[in-house]
Design goal:
The structure is a single chain. The chain is α/β, with parallel strands linked by helices and about 150 residues long. The chain has one domain (about 5-130): NAD(P)-binding Rossmann-like Domain (Rossmann fold, 3-Layer(aba) Sandwich). About 35% of the residues lie in helices and about 20% in strands. A five-stranded parallel sheet has the order 3-2-1-4-5, sandwiched between helices. Helix 1 (about 5-25) crosses helix 2 (about 45-55). The protein starts with 6 loop residues before the first helix and ends in a 22-residue tail after the last strand.
Length: about 150
């Protein structure tokens, strides 16, 4: 290991890398054509997941907390970058995907983004809650419609 890399940094990268592998390969098999909505692209996990998802052939929609992070998210490979709290996120996802919406949402924010995340999913898409920096998401009753879609 280079001398400039502390044990703390090495352990962090290892942990985040293992988490990214689990999320991209085991939780949902991200592959060519998958549309991924990823919150926290500028964080440690997001900086690993965004380019890896692109490498797997996904379309990556990154969500950042401030406009100054948009360029960084694009460098990481995001096809579209949305700034949280700047307009209706779900509408922007639908517009970018021509109405398809996201196959997969990785939401590490929690309470404040839960509804936007659910509304950004295509029918039978998967939302993965990977953190709750704003608190736990609210309880949600699942209602099955006759054709089988939830929510």
């Amino acid at each position: 290991m280079p001398q400039s890399v502390t044990s703390y940094i090495a352990a962090t990268v290892l942990f985040e890398g293992i988490t990214a592998q689990y999320l991209l390969k085991s939780t949902y098999q991200v592959k060519q054509g998958t549309v991924v909505l990823l919150y926290g692209v500028g964080g440690a996990l997001g900086q690993i997941m965004a380019p890896w998802a692109k490498h797997l052939g996904a379309t990556v929609i990154g969500v950042v907390s401030k406009a100054s992070s948009v360029d960084r998210a694009r460098v990481l490979g995001c096809d579209e970058v949305l700034v949280w709290r700047k307009g209706d996120l779900a509408e922007k996802v639908a517009a970018f995907t021509n109405g398809h919406k996201a196959d997969l949402v990785y939401d590490g924010v929690g309470k404040l983004t839960f509804e936007a995340s659910i509304n950004s999913l295509r029918p039978r898409g998967l939302m993965v809650s990977i953190g709750a920096s704003t608190g736990a998401p609210p309880s949600k009753s699942v209602h099955l419609k006759p054709w089988g879609h939830c929510f």
